[in-house]
Design goal:
alpha+beta, about 30% strand, six-stranded mixed β-sheet, about 300 residues
Length: about 300
């Protein structure tokens, strides 16, 4: 586990101005008490690494003081701009969730830019929301915890669950998801279930995963029109919101090549903060569906976490 050291904590009374080091800061549900950037929004706390400051100081050929780039927390030990939204920093008392990397630079309209001559914050500063409050001071340490995308895969098949043949769609979903998220520097954790076409068992597994705040649930199988195809009827009442567009697009896109693809009754939606995607059971269909769904997942998770990533 990576640890970072807090070198300085800093506050200011006005936005767009340099912050001054203080003995300690109090973090609450709206950010840093007494700081201009506190509030009910996603950029409550700003952090900047001394590694970024040192590089800029060398280029500018002058000393940069803690807080000059308007960071609340100056750190050492990690290149913060390499973090991702939803990563966390915590110790026994406080916990921060990363919500944004960098920000728009206002140039000459920013007093920091006018005073310092440039600003590293737009490119290498990060912002966070307070999850658990408390006091923080120079010398404290924080553990860095990268976000792990937690995915549950449920394959529904009477024959595969009875051992009559090997499930291929569940492992394919895992392979495609793992490959995709590793490409965007996201860690993943998987739980796999192979069950009969049993609505009651399916609903119990989904309810348990939603209760555990799993990020994503994929089901495979039971989306056709056969007498044992119950998946949409089981899952739809469990959704708080449906996401119809992606499944409609997939049906039309692949249905133009193979009309039987239009018979799929796959659905997608949200239950709590869990994304649920009900896919067909064939290996080919799973591959096609995942190619369209996976690129949307990270942004969907941001939306559920009320993070503005536009």
């Amino acid at each position: 586990m990576t640890k970072i050291k807090v070198l300085s904590v800093n506050t200011s009374e006005k936005k767009g101005t340099v912050k001054k080091p203080v003995a300690s800061i109090e973090l609450t549900g709206i950010g840093v008490v007494g700081d201009a950037h506190s509030g009910k929004w996603h950029r409550q706390v700003s952090l900047l690494a001394t590694e970024s400051i040192a590089r800029f100081a060398s280029e500018a050929n002058r000393l940069i003081k803690h807080g000059e780039f308007a960071e609340n927390i100056t750190t050492d030990g990690l290149l913060l701009h390499e973090c991702r939204p939803l990563d966390r920093f915590r110790n026994k008392e406080i916990e921060l969730k990363v919500t944004q990397i960098g920000k728009k630079c206002h140039g000459d309209n920013c007093s920091i830019f006018r005073e310092v001559g440039n600003c590293v914050m737009p490119k290498e500063g990060i912002f966070a929301r307070v999850i658990r409050g408390g006091k923080l001071k120079a010398g404290d340490e924080l553990d860095y915890l990268p976000k792990v995308i937690n995915i549950h895969i449920i394959t529904l098949s009477d024959r595969a669950s009875a051992g009559e043949y090997t499930d291929r769609s569940g492992p394919q979903i895992k392979f495609l998801s793992e490959t995709f998220f590793s490409g965007i520097r996201r860690q993943t954790a998987f739980t796999n279930h192979l069950i009969p076409d049993d609505p009651e068992l399916l609903s119990k597994l989904i309810a348990s995963a939603v209760s555990d705040q799993v990020d994503v649930i994929f089901t495979s199988g039971g989306t056709g029109i056969g007498p044992r195809d119950y998946t949409p009827e089981t899952v739809r009442p469990m959704l708080d919101k449906e996401i119809p567009g992606i499944m409609e697009m997939i049906r039309v896109k692949y249905g133009t090549e193979k009309p039987t693809a239009l018979l799929s009754r796959s659905i997608a939606g949200v239950s709590g903060k869990t994304l649920i995607y009900c896919l067909p059971g064939s290996l080919k269909a799973v591959t096609e569906y995942c190619s369209e769904i996976l690129p949307t997942i990270e942004h969907s998770i941001y939306m559920l976490e009320e993070i503005d990533s536009h």
